[in-house]
Amino acid sequence: MVRLSWIPFVFASLSVAVETTQHSTREAACTVKVQHKPWQMLTSAERTAYINAELCLMEAPTRLNVAGSKTLWDDLQWAHILQANVMHDVGHFLPWHRYFFVVHGNLLREECGYTGPLPYWDETADASLSDLSRSPVFQNTAFGGTGSGAQSYITTGPFASLALRMRRPGQSASNYRISRSLNVRSLASARQASLDACFQMTTYTAAWECWGGSPHGAGHGATGGLMVDVFASPGDPVFYLHHGWLDAMWWKWQTLDLPGRLTDMGGRNVPRLSYVQRLGTGLPGREWTDYHGERGNITTLNHILSVNELAPNVTVGNVMDVGGSVVCADYIFSNSFNATINTIVDGFMTTFTE
């Protein structure tokens, strides 16, 4: 049975979160920003420190104490499992995953003393590879390679022996490991030519559908195995690198029209029935839909984002500006990526002036 003892925490945070958003459309700026940068740009020492911090988090004791959970890694995975039919196929898909990425990074610092950048996977760069096993992400000194055997469990890298336990609601916790089936073909939708369509969207209502489609599916499909499990994918640490990349793409899209895109929000609040039927779940229950912070089925800046009791609830409005106090990040992009985006922007301006 799903444990919902933390739901009062969700409701208790409602008034504070909504009030904050109604009084200000911009988050207060933070003073010390955390760099979010491609794994490919990290130094050897930074990569080692990050891997060690992840291993530390995988050993840190549970805070949620849900059935089967033993570690903070289990807790993070459970937060995603429990809300799979809440924050997928909806307008707050990108804000929720931005906050989830940030909470994961905060736990690395709080629990494991990590002080380095939060890496993301530059999938656009790796999309040109002929073999994904050549990616810096999937080396034995990084996240390990593809899986083998009947269950495609990984056998190389520092996470090969990681014991995972959390499964979708209704299934009892039991041990399993990270499975992968690397496939570079799925990264085709991470190529710049494929991303251009999303960068050309002029409203969030259109953009989130674009980013949540093929670009979102790129890293999940290319990694395969556990990463294509809509519920349990955060069990593979590559999940955070992938969603860090997707969030970087959304942020770059936001920067093409600031400050307007710091308040541009929309999309449905409740996933389509056809989507949750494919998941094998029902629509979100009242314990989720009654506290969203807005009326109707349109996502607003007042929509509340919860990661259970791993961090305080925030609103969509609180995470729109990555330089604000909640996200507190500085995104680093490769020179080649920035050059490509500048070309796209110049094209927009030429079309507009003509």
Automatic annotation (TrEMBL):
<feature type="domain" description="Tyrosinase copper-binding">
    <location>
        <begin position="236"/>
        <end position="247"/>
    </location>
</feature>
<dbReference type="GO" id="GO:0046872">
    <property type="term" value="F:metal ion binding"/>
</dbReference>
<dbReference type="InterPro" id="IPR050316">
    <property type="entry name" value="Tyrosinase/Hemocyanin"/>
</dbReference>
<dbReference type="GO" id="GO:0016491">
    <property type="term" value="F:oxidoreductase activity"/>
</dbReference>
<feature type="signal peptide">
    <location>
        <begin position="1"/>
        <end position="17"/>
    </location>
</feature>
<dbReference type="InterPro" id="IPR008922">
    <property type="entry name" value="Di-copper_centre_dom_sf"/>
</dbReference>
<keyword id="KW-0732">Signal</keyword>
<keyword id="KW-0479">Metal-binding</keyword>
<dbReference type="InterPro" id="IPR002227">
    <property type="entry name" value="Tyrosinase_Cu-bd"/>
</dbReference>
<keyword id="KW-0186">Copper</keyword>
<dbReference type="Pfam" id="PF00264">
    <property type="entry name" value="Tyrosinase"/>
</dbReference>
<protein>
    <recommendedName>
        <fullName>Tyrosinase copper-binding domain-containing protein</fullName>
    </recommendedName>
</protein>
